[in-house]
Amino acid sequence: MKNVIAIMLGLFMSATALAGPDFGGHVGLKSDHLMRGMTMNSGLAAHAGVQLDWNGAKAGLNVHQNDQNGDAKMMADMFAGYNMGLGDFQIGLEYHNYSFRDDWDNKLSDFEEVQATLRHEWGYARHHSGLDDAPDYWEVGTGALKYVNVWYGDWEDTGSNYGVSADLGNHLGGDIAVGWTWFDADSASDMEDDDTLWVTYTVAF
Questions:
Q1: CA atoms of 21 and 13, how far apart (whole Å)
Q2: Which residue from 191, 1, 200 is spatially nearest to 95, judged by alpha carbons?
Q3: Which of 45, 89, 147, 199 fits as disulfide partner to 65, beta carbons 3.0 to 4.6 Å?
Q4: CA angle centred on 90, ends 88 and 92, rounded to 5°
Q5: Which residues of 64-73 are buried (b: 16+ CB within 10 A; e: fewer)?
Q6: What is the signed CA dihedral for 126, 77, 172, 145, rounded to 10 degrees?
Q7: pLDDT for position 22
Q8: What is the 3-state secondary structure of 123-173?
Q9: What DSSP element (H or E) covers 1?
């Protein structure tokens, strides 16, 4: 774990020596907060995030509102990473620390992972390696179809998900997207199958 953090900090510090930083963020609302296909709230949820980018290095924080049995809770995702181009591909390596205010519905606890991503104009492949016995996750998807994005992912010992979404553009000052996601719970997990039709509204700054 300490080695992972040291590598991420080394990449970030080496990149920051080259040029000035770029700071940005977002705030928004979504009809459902989904995490790898799982619905984590029972109604409208707020979300926000900030990110510092510097010559391929990045660090930031995303927070999401979760409604657990009527109680408003929060999930935080702290991350740091580095992206670089390689021909027609983009390669990314990130460290993520997920924390839940009170274990989510007694089913998810805080965990950390390292994420490796390979992107091309035709799509992406991403693998999340869980740290300290946290389960792994992988996902593939494409936005190369004319109007929609599609993906499939599998969370070890938890469940798989697939879905379709469409970006509707900028309206009323924010970006709007709609989609449908299906979650197929692993028979050995405490999760339940679920399908969700969702919409998001996000304002970037």
A1: 12
A2: 1
A3: 45
A4: 165
A5: bbbbbeeeeb
A6: 10
A7: 94
A8: EEEEEEEECCCCCCEEEEEECCCCCCEEEEEEECCCEEEEEEEEEEEEECC
A9: none
| Residue matched to tokens 């993520």 | 96
List of E strands, the chain: 22-30, 34-35, 38-39, 45-54, 57-68, 71-86, 89-100, 111-120, 123-130, 137-142, 149-155, 159-171, 174-185, 194-204
The tokens for 63 are 């927070």
Higher pLDDT, 46 or 15: 46
3-class DSSP state of 105: coil
For residue 65, give Cα distances in angstroms to 21, 61, 77, 88: 28, 14, 12, 37
Q: Three-state SS for 3?
A: helix
The span from the CA of 75 to the CA of 66, in Å, is: 7
| CA neighbor of 185 nearest in space, from 151, 153, 158 | 158
Helix (H, G, I), strand (E, B) or coil at 12: helix
Instruction: Please give the Cα distance from 138 to 24 (Å, whole number).
Output: 27
- What pLDDT digit, counting tens, does each position of 41-94 carry? 877 889 999 999 999 999 999 999 876 555 557 889 999 999 999 999 999 999
